[in-house]
Amino acid sequence: MSAHKYELMLIADPELDERALKKLVDQFLKVVTDEKGSVENIDIWGRRKLAYEIAGKNEGNYAVVNYTAEPATSDELDRLLNLNESIIRTKILRKDAK
């Protein structure tokens, strides 16, 4: 098994302020660093209007993260994100796929 590059985009509850959003993202990325992965970039976009309503919300807080990790670590990150009520939607893309 070898590590791969990933891009995580998440949309969090619009009620979170930027500091709370950053803290939430950092909390999830601990899974990556604890498993010997690395986080290259965290880009907090802040509150944006959603293209369509999700879970009764018209806005969401966006964050995009580039990281390198084992596939199992990425799966665990995805699982934890889906369990959190503050996270409206996530998408993890593998960046180094041929």
Automatic annotation (TrEMBL):
One of its GO terms (molecular function) is small ribosomal subunit rRNA binding. CDD domains: bS6. Pfam families: Ribosomal_S6 (PF01250). GO terms for biological process: translation. Keywords: Ribonucleoprotein, Ribosomal protein, RNA-binding, rRNA-binding. One of its GO terms (cellular component) is cytoplasm. InterPro entries: Ribosomal_bS6, Ribosomal_bS6_sf, Ribosomal_S6_plastid/chlpt, Transl_elong_EF1B/ribsomal_bS6. Gene3D superfamilies: 3.30.70.60. Belongs to the bacterial ribosomal protein bS6 family. PANTHER family: MITOCHONDRIAL 28S RIBOSOMAL PROTEIN S6, SMALL RIBOSOMAL SUBUNIT PROTEIN BS6M. Binds together with bS18 to 16S ribosomal RNA. This is Small ribosomal subunit protein bS6.
